[in-house]
Design a protein that fits this description.
Number of helices: 13
Structural class: alpha/beta
CATH architecture of the largest domain: 3-Layer(aba) Sandwich
Distance between the termini: 22 Å
Mean pLDDT: 96
Shape: globular
Radius of gyration: 18 Å
Largest sheet: 6 strands, mixed
CATH class of the largest domain: Alpha Beta
């Protein structure tokens, strides 16, 4: 089985996707369309050198989405996944690339998601931390003991779990997890507590937009973040997508399930190689590669 996987927030870099604009008429047209839909020139930020502007959630998320989706579109006939999956934001890229959502609708949802998340972060200052070198069960137990909001957010690979919560909750958790034997408990430079109950206002706002968006039958199954299993029914996909902002990203479980289902090759579509590295940590025999023009 071959899977195409799509990265999430954190994979951005200045100058990203410029070659897709320069070397492809389809790419140029899609980027110009995106500028119109977003109401600002995202290409100017993506292709420039202003790393600070690119770090803003409302810019970062559409930028990564555009890089991934436009690359998949340009690949055309050579883009033939048997299954797809995306890490957090990347799930939207996967849904568009596999035909469940139109490009325009996908971009509008991603923009709405990014703005809603940024607003939720400003309302409730919060953060995330990467916990390295502990079993998932240990991290889960310690988070559950803390009275502040602190939850497992991203199950990235065995021994690497990102937690999310209030500033105080994350500080307490980092101390307790270090004492429990974590190799590292590193606070991340993020805008807020993604994939936690603190994102409820954003989830509620995004749910309305998802309800108003048309989902179609896709070309292949998708493994969704909230379930880590193959799904093909548009209504089911829609419901799972509504829960994504406040639920954990089950990426470790997704990779493990893919391998059980017969995974042999993964192709990462978009900026960076983070997901390839995570797959190698689960099974070094998996063939990994980046999608290229």
């Amino acid at each position: 089985m071959n899977a195409y996987v799509f990265p999430g927030q954190g994979a951005q870099y200045p100058g990203m996707a410029k070659e897709l604009y320069t070397n492809s008429n389809i790419g140029k047209e899609m980027f110009e369309n995106a500028n119109d839909i977003l109401g600002f020139s995202i290409t100017k930020i993506m292709f420039g050198e202003n790393a600070k502007a690119l770090q803003e959630t409302k810019v970062t998320q559409p930028a990564i989405f555009l890089h991934s989706v436009i690359l998949a579109k340009i690949l055309d006939e050579s883009f033939k996944p048997e299954v797809v999956a995306g890490h957090s934001l990347g799930e939207f890229s996967a849904l568009v690339s596999a035909g469940y959502l139109s490009f325009e609708d996908g971009l509008k949802l991603v923009s709405k998601r990014a703005k809603a998340m940024q607003k939720a972060c400003e309302k409730n200052p919060s953060t995330m931390a990467a916990i390295i070198g502990l079993k998932n069960e240990t991290v889960e137990e310690i988070c559950a003991e803390i009275k502040e909001i602190v939850v497992p957010a991203n199950y990235n690979c065995p021994g690497q779990l990102v937690i999310s919560g209030s500033n105080k909750g994350i500080d307490i958790a980092c101390q307790k997890l270090t004492a429990a034997g974590a190799r590292r408990a590193l606070k991340l430079p993020v805008g807020g507590a993604f994939h936690s109950p603190i994102m409820e206002p954003a989830r509620s706002e995004l749910e309305k937009a998802i309800n108003e968006t048309k989902f179609s039958k896709g070309h292949c199954p998708i493994y969704q973040n909230t379930t880590a299993i193959q799904i093909t029914k548009p209504d089911e996909i829609k419901d799972n997508l509504k829960k994504q902002l406040t639920n954990s990203v089950l990426w470790t479980q997704t990779m493990q399930q893919m391998i059980i289902d017969g995974l042999k090759t993964i192709t990462e579509v978009g900026p960076g190689k983070v997901l390839q590295g995570l797959f190698k940590k689960v099974n070094s025999d998996i063939e990994t590669r980046s999608a290229t023009l």
